[in-house]
Amino acid sequence: MTQSLSQGLKRLATKPALLTDLRRGVERETLRVTARGQLAVDPHSPKLGAALTHPLITTDFSESLLEFITPVAATIEETLVTLRDIHRFVHRQLPEQRLWPMSMPCYVPSEGEIPVARYGSSNVGRMKTLYRVGLHHRYGSVMQLIAGAHYNISFSDRLWQQILGTDEPLHSAQRSACYMGLIRNFRRQAWVIPYLFGASPSLCRSFVNLKGSELPFACTPGGTCYLPYATSLRMSDLGYTNRAQARLSVDYNSLPAYLAAIEAAISTPEPTFEAIGVRVDGGYRQLNANILQIENELYAPIRPKRSLKTGETPLSALRRHGIEYVEVRTLDLDPFEPTGINPDALRFIDLLLLDCALAEPRPFAVGELAEASHNFNQVVLYGRDPQLQLTVAGIDRPLRQLLVELCQRLEPLAALMDGVSLDGGYLNALSAQHAKVLDPSLTPSARVLEAILGQDGNNKPLAMRLAENHRHYFLESGYEQLDESGFEQLARQSLAEQAAMDAQPQQPFDEFLEQYYRRAVEPA
Fold first, then answer.
1. Which of 52, 203, 271, 387 is close enough to 207 for a disulfide, judged by CB 3.0 to 4.6 Å?
2. CATH number, domain at 278?
3. Which tens digits make up the pLDDT trace of 126-166?
4. Beta strands in 155-285 (DSSP E)
5. How many domains does the chain have?
6. Is residue 22 in a domain?
7. Does residue 136 contact residue 284 with C-beta atoms inside 8 Å?
8. By residue range, what is the domain housing residue 315?
């Protein structure tokens, strides 16, 4: 344990109640499918409300890809209570459909048949839709149907002050520097998340053309292709990440440097995307032909975030006010969990992020981010290989040894959290992860692969059985916090809000876009 980490732990131990200052929220994506397991391509149901304006239920890339968003909460259980209630309402409104429980899609129609999400005729709604049209042309629609879970978490200023050992009030730049240090330390050990919680070791043969692939895929007669030791193909080059951003160099050593890199990416033309065209035959194919259309196109395991005020873009909000929270984007859906999220996964991420906050916030040395990215990719492809080694500061070390050391380092934090948290269960959650280190067959990726291979290598029977089980769980249990009438009111209110936005006079869309990008890059 480093001196910085040890000192930080001692300071936390004097005021452990500050650990209750963590605030959390989750975003869970899920595909709608028919009762026969085919992608549901009908429009987003008005019974669920308007995707543009509903605070809890929206869509991601496609009309078929739902996204559930929980409000900020003080505990993991409060977060998951809301998430369970959202599932209950959606299942009651869509009785003929099911929610696909896995991250990787299967049995999807051709690219042109996948419906891009629609958000109405306002300029804001048009921009959201056209951004997705651009994703379709850039990367293909099938890739955009991959689903995951994001975990948002913030630290109070009081907690940061205790970690830093100061009573002085934090200003925006100091707070942002703390979060950027946390982000760098997370990137150094982000590989632990796919090992412990990855649940996408396989994909449908139709999902991607594996011809010429150097990866040792095995394919079953049932149409499933897999890597024997893979943990999260969702997070590999076959999933969310993409080669088009490989040349994008993002500087995480400070928030201004990070913002400058993203500003350059949304302003620098990319020849591959220029070949697509922006306006073709009078219609938009993408928002622009630059490396990134907007900030959200950056695929990263963790991102700095800020709530937006009227007229702000994500970049301008971060530039003016600094970082408010971080978004962890590495969680696969757990198909064995009705909500797709295991509570122990969130408890472990709490501990990991606290560890990242306490550790020395060293800047990335030359080549260190590339090393971290390589380690991450090795784990998503070969994480359960007992011989796998990762590179740390240029030295190869066994994966299992690194995992054991991490679990030991997190134990004092887990004990502190159990002493003050309203949730509790942190030591038990850590123990469950340690068991996966000793026995990789306990990991979700191993369990998923074993279950698929037991179904003649066909993931559809497994996915549909789990989807039916989850559906019955939610239909047979009552609401815990919200209720049917409350959800119906939210749906009506969101529809009215979008209708009002659509009815307002709109400036020419070209001017709207120009103003958006000007705001994104203008100085604070």
1. 203
2. 3.30.590.20
3. 999 999 999 999 999 988 999 999 999 999 999 999 999 99
4. 202-204, 218-219, 224-226, 279-280, 283-284
5. 1
6. yes
7. no
8. 3-199+233-366+463-521
